[in-house]
Amino acid sequence: MVLADVADRDGIDALFDELEARLPRLDIFAANAGTGRVTPFLDLSTQEWDDVVALNLTGTTYCCQRAARLMRNHPAPNMSIIVVSSIRALGARSGRLAYSATKAAVNQMVRVAALDLAPLGIRVNALSPGITDTPLTAANPDAFAEAVAGVPLGRAGLPEDIAEGALFLASPQARFVTGINLVVDGGESLNA
């Protein structure tokens, strides 16, 4: 296992240098780091904004660049970059400016990267989960219950539901899919 702080460019460089030393090539890369809190618009500090942008947008973009460079240098038949976004990028929710703005920017980065990397045979797609039953969401049972109440399919997503979406995007079955945002949310974003 190799650990890195995705908000730190030097940490990302060390991570990818280690990956390049250990792996014969990189076929699939998933960018899944992210952070965000519920903070009212007028209370959002410059520090919180900078921290969220550094991890969710800048770090994610730089990781995808480094992954694409490895893929370009060691081509494979099925090269895929998957970026975990969020349905919060698709609609406005009170108190979620930094998180929503960075995830919307990530969606646009995915589209541009998909165009730029397609000639190299590298597919780039986003995956946008809705409310998902994880230890993090369980920490606030009232907010979790409220979010689940807005899901047309009547339940929160399970980690396996999100993983299945990622597996599809990584697989050869998605060999002609690039630049999309696969929403896996039980219909939650339909209410946004």
Structure overview:
The chain has 192 residues and is α/β, with parallel strands linked by helices. The chain has a single domain, classed as NAD(P)-binding Rossmann-like Domain (Rossmann fold). Helices cover 46% and strands 11% of the residues. The protein contains six helices and four strands, in the order αβαβαβαααβ. It has helices spanning 9-22, 46-73, 97-117, 135-138, 141-149, 159-170; strands at 28-31, 79-84, 122-129, 181-184. Strand 2 (79-84), helix 3 and strand 3 (122-129) form a beta-alpha-beta unit. The chain starts with 8 loop residues before the first helix and ends in an 8-residue tail after the last strand. 34% of the residues are buried.
List the topology elements:
Elements (H helix, E strand, L loop, with lengths): L8 H14 L5 E4 L14 H28 L5 E6 L12 H21 L4 E8 L5 H4 L2 H9 L9 H12 L10 E4 L8
Parallel strand pairs: 1-2, 2-3, 3-4
Brief rundown of the structure:
This protein is an alpha/beta fold and 192 residues long. It contains six helices and four strands. It starts with 8 loop residues before the first helix and ends in an 8-residue tail after the last strand.
Name of the CATH first level: Alpha Beta
Distance between the termini: 38 Å
Strand order of the largest sheet: 1-2-3-4
CATH architecture: 3-Layer(aba) Sandwich
What fold name stands as the CATH topology? Rossmann fold
Q: What would CATH call the homologous superfamily?
A: NAD(P)-binding Rossmann-like Domain
Q: Estimate the global geometry from the Cα principal axes.
A: globular
Number of domains: 1
* Radius of gyration over all CA atoms, rounded: 17 Å
The parts where pLDDT drops under 50 for at least 5 residues are none
Number of helices: 6
Q: Topology as H/E string? A: HEHEHEHHHE
Estimated helix fraction: 40-55%
